[in-house]
Design a protein that fits this description.
The protein contains 3 helices and 10 strands, in the order E-H-E-E-E-E-H-E-H-E-E-E-E. It has 158 residues and is an alpha+beta fold.
Amino acid sequence: MQKLKILNTREIKAIKELLIKQFGSALQENYAYLQTEKDRLFLVNRDIAQIDLDKLKIDRLGLYFAELRPSQIRLSKEGAQLLVNEARRQKADLKNILSLTKIETRAYFAGVDLKKDLGEENRLVILTYEDAVVGCAAYKEGKLINFLPKIHRGEVIL
């Protein structure tokens, strides 16, 4: 059983500022943000956040959105999809989006780190294939570090 903390408005604003700094857009929907002891963020409907969570034994609640780090936010696969879909509806300009080829996408779903030259700056990027959002990866020293969980991996993806 994990301890969940409901984030206040100031903390949510800081998360949205990180999203805008990294990806050029933030979620506009009025979600409640829950944070675990391991700094994982979950999104729930605001009505659920009115419940006293200390009285419940909860394993998981809501959509796993991201992992919060001191200077960045690493999106989950579902979090990246949600952010990109909402930005497309808002017609917002996104940054740090990388389109993969079919071969690269297959390698990514096999769990392989991809070699790419995206410049000197280390950063997180959202990966896409055609119009589909594939996930989020860290770019460091000419390589995309694969964070795709084993449960999402497979060989017969495309």
